[in-house]
Structure formats: structure tokens, C-alpha cells
Amino acid sequence: MFTSTRKKINVSSSKAIIDGIAKDGGLYVIDKIPKIKIEELIDLDYKALAVKILSLFLDDFSVQNIQKIVEEAYSKFDIEEVVELKEFDNFSFLELYHGPTLAFKDVALTVLPLLMNEAKAINKDNSKTIILTATSGDTGSAALSGFSKVENSGIIVIYPNKGISQIQEKQILSFTNSQAKAFALEGNFDDAQNLVKKIFSEEKFLTDLKDKNVSSANSINIGRLIPQIVYYFYSYIKLVNKKSIKLFDKINFTVPTGNFGNILAGYLAYQMGLPINKLICASNINNVLNDFFATGVYDKNRELKLSYSPSMDILISSNLERLLYYISNKNPNKVANLMHELSNKGKYKLSIMMRKRTKIFESGFADDSETLEMIKEVFEKYKYLIDTHTAVAYKVYKDYQNNSKDKTKTVILSTASGFKFADAVIKGLNLNKQDTLFGSLKVISDYTNVVIPSSLDEIVTKEYKTQEISSKQALETVKKMIGDL
Question: Which domains does the chain have, with CATH numbers?
């Protein structure tokens, strides 16, 4: 059963997926994290592993239906095994970007729409589902790709105006239609995220919709988070089968993260029994999470800076609330009080006991110049192309290894194709930026000998109209759009 981080309740997995966020404003968490024996997973391919793990969490879904969902979702990827592990010295890059929108969000957001449909069938819910999602870049296109053609549903994506890459915006707008809308909000990602949370908190408005149910595709939706656990187990099994490690050896994971969802999936995998030595949290110049792990104080009272890794340009890491629930010994009152402090003072401080329970985590950050340096270094040293977010993770991995002298095998989560952040990659590789986006992509391709992903062929040359909304108009605009969909 699932409960809220802020109040003890009991709901099924299907109801948690339909709701997206608890009515008290908390996030759904599974109260008792299931355990798994790693030795029983050795012979499973990615899809079989996904069925196994999802079945442990989704208590009211049949295994047969989960299997159908997994097969359908991952048929959209350009490789059979969904993700790919590339080994180098003492580390590996785990490529998570082989889905429709070239980012790790596809791993979960191809699954979530199908989970949502099945959850509604389980609950005999005939209402129209409206997905409301804030994005710092990649979630928006992946959610639109997944939901834009789903029957009896609509989707609204809100992203920070001029706060994402050119290709990210083109991808988002390419999926819009009469039932799929996207708005560029005046402000930053936190403003977009706060707008979404504000609408979820307006109980009268949501109740008055009657024949519609508003949910989320952000990682605040537990149905979005659970599928991300799978690739942690998969990468470990892959290393065992390649004889790079022995069964039960511990490994490290370095994870670029802003909203804390990707690395939280790793924490859940650890709690399930995956042999993890350290989860290394990699932040960009908006290093609120690095400061949190270094000091035990979460403080969002700082200016949000736009960086070359825009998907991490976040100051309010929503999924951290789920970690607080577990390290507070599942005390929803404690979590509610900390969230109240964050809302009113912009910061909170962990107790000594809670801080001790974060020892599995290490952290670090990279600024923009270091990000570009890492893109260049990785290509020159390994002839391997990485994007800006992966570059942040690589820098933090190097710093951790140099400072700790830890020789543990490390998997670095590679979260997006380098082509999605062409301008920054061109700077990092010291190439000449071209007048057109396609020209820039071709320069990267010619230099690195990496083929431009076919999914970009059409959108790079097409013009799309940005629909801007001011922060003052945003709440009423989005509420009206929900009503009209």
C-alpha cells in the first residue's frame, strides 16, 4: 500500500498513479519497500526485469497486464535492451536516451500512460485524465510523446520561457495538438512547478471538474518514478554478466539530478537490496543539493542561474520530500513540518539522526566552464560523445574519486543525447557554431562520427510558435485550459 509523505493514509498503487499527488500536498510513497534477491535476477533481460520490479510495487496490477505494458512501452526504443552500458576505465556510462525523445525520461514516460489507463480500468474510472506537468526540458517532450495520442486524456506542459535548449523546445512543440498543449511561462522551472502544485492544491476547482481527473507526469507521480528503479538493477546485472564485478560486490552510481527523482530511484533500489556503496549526487551551478548533503541544510534562498545543463536548473527538488519520509523513520508529521519551513522560510535543517541516514550519498557540482571541459575531455580521451548533464556527472565522479581514493566500480547515468544540447556541445568541442540548428548538428556528427538521431530530422528545420504566458495570467490560463480540454 501507498501513503502520503505528510499524512498516514492507505491507497492502492493504481489510486496513487491516478491521483499523481496526495490531497494533503504530499507525495505518495510505498510504506514498506519490497526486498529482492539480486541472484534471482541474473538471467533476466531488461523487459523481464522491469516486469519483475514493477510487479513488486504495483500491488493491484496483474503480472500479465504489466508484461503487456512493458512490451508496448519499450517497443518505441531504438535498441532491444532499452538502455546500454558502455564500459571505460573504472567506470561506465549507462545510456538512458534511446527512447523517442532522446532522454532518460522516456524510460518511465513511455510506461506511465499505459499504467494510467490500466489504473483507471482497475478503479472503473471513466473520467477524462488531464495530465498537468511542469518541465525543465526533457520531461515535457517525453510526457507529450507518451500522452498526446492516448484516448480519453489531455495534457498540458508548462516550461520556463527561454530556460530550455532550442531542441528541447522544438521537441515539446512538435507533439502539441488539440488535446496536448504547451506554455512557456515567464519565470523559471520552480515557478512552473509551483504553479502545478498550486492547481493540485485547489480542491474546489478539481472537485468541480466532475468528469475530469487532473494528474501529473512529473516524477512526483509514483508511477513515473518506479520504472526508473529498473535500470539500476540492470546495469549491476550487466556488470556481473560481463565479469566486470562479482555478484554481491558493491558499486557506485553517479547521477546528474535537479529534482532528485533519478537518484531517488537509486535509493529505492538500494533499499530493495541492490549492493550500492555510494550514490553520488551531481549538481550544476545551482548546487542546492550539494550544499544540502554537505551541511544538512536545504536552502533555496538563492538566485536560480541558467546553465548549460538546463534540466537541472532547479532550486526546489520535489523528490527530496520522499527521502525525508524514509530518513525520518516514516514520520509524516516531521516531513510536513519541514515542508512548512521550506514554504515559509525557504529552508530547513535535518536532525542529527536524519543526517546520519544520508551517509549513502556523496555529492558535488560542476559549473558551466567545467561542464564544457568534461565534454572535450571525454571525447578526446575515449572518443565518446556526452551531453552537458552527463558532463556534470563525469566531473563530480572524477572529483569524488580523486578526493576519496575510492576505487569502486562506478556507473555514471548518461541522461540525454549530446545532440539535444548542440550549442553547448559545440563550445565544449571547440567547433564552429553554424547559422542553422541542422548545420550545428551536422558539425557535431561529422566531428564525432556519431549519426544524428533520426527523430530530430523533421523538427530541426521546422518553425514552431511559442505560446507565452505571464506569471500573473498563468493560474487562470491553465485552469481555463483544463476546463476546455
Answer: 84-102+225-456 (3.40.50.1100)
